[in-house]
Amino acid sequence: MTANDAGTTDNRLGARCAAVASIGAAVIHFAVAPMHWNDWVPSGVFFAAIGVFQLAWGFFAWSRPTRLLLAAGIAANVGLAALWVISRTAGAPFGPNAGEAESVEAAGICVLLLQCYVVMGAAWVLRGRYRAHMVSGLGRTLVLVGANTVMALAVTAGLASGLNGHQHHHGAPVDAEAGGGSAQETHAVTGHGSGPAATEQGRPVTDMKLNTGADHAPSSPDGHQHAHHG
Question: Would 176 be classed as within a structural domain?
Answer without folding.
Answer: no
